[in-house]
Design brief:
The radius of gyration is 21 Å and the shape is globular. It has a single domain (2-329), classed as Porin (Beta Barrel), CATH 2.40.160.10. The chain has a 17-stranded mixed β-barrel. A hairpin with a 5-residue loop joins strand 12 (227-239) and strand 13. It starts with a strand and ends with a strand. By secondary structure, it is mostly beta strands. It is built from 3 helices and 17 strands. The longest helix is centred in the first third of the chain and has 9 residues, at 16-24.
Length: 330
Amino acid sequence: MFRISFTLIVISMVSTGLFADKAAAQGENHYPAYRLSGFMEQNFTHEQDADPAAAFQIYRARVGVAGRLNELISFNITAGAVEPPNRNPQLVNAFVDFDIHPMFRLRTGQFLVPFGLEGPEPVFLNPAIERSTVMRRMNYFRMFRDVGIQASGSQDGISYAIALINGTGANVGERIDPKDLIGRLGYQASDELGLGVSFHIGKSPVPATEPDRFQLGIDATWCSDPLLIRGEYVLRKDEVPGGDDRSQHGGYVLAGYHFNDELQGILRLEMHRPDTDVDFDDSALTILTAGLNYYLQGHTRVSLNYEVRSDRRDNVDLGNLLTVQLQIVL
């Protein structure tokens, strides 16, 4: 099966001039200050043997406001008019930050959970068009977000973020009493090399049984212009009826190289083994992605990704995927 997908992403922000005008009107402290933000993704997809075979689609459409009330308090409220996979309007971000100290920022509300590299990163910053399939499959949380409270900070090359969350994902009410604990510890070993370890301890939101779940992740980034190399590996365990555990693991390595200021090539290899009790040849997903990014200005770019995909689980034929994307950031 072969699919062609064309994506148009528009990320718009009110100009810094309007931001500054509003701030200046409040006095020399420039508070309160805010800006509007938002983005839109439009897809054209063509899939072999699909009915219909081709379609235009608004994949995501978001609008929000972010700003600062004073030196201590900032906020972000963002809503999605259209959000995958069910296409319904959703609340995306709704959090307040208290910048108490460089080593202690308090965040409360609905936010990106601090696990790994790709999850907490806005998707339009990813060198590839989309987050890796393996990280999306192993992720527990809708839109990589949940509701709770988080402490974070950084100093002398060490950073941390730890959050107490519902564990049910964005826009889903708490179903059981225990909260999940999730976090990441990072270390900038040199100007080029960054290392991190992440964890997640909690309960699946299944009333009565409340099965245990656990994730451990490691990540590394090497960034020395024009070369970028980064990767993640995650081990996940879920308790199943009868008291046994189901284990899965996976990860990816991504390399990016800037041939010049405008043109970047990328190569990503990912693997997901959804059940370690099943032989690799009968269960593993592997994807090799090759791509090019042509940057027009800032994060505005035209991207092409070609994925060679193999899913050995139940003889599923994913087929290869070609995606062309225009991303506009204002």
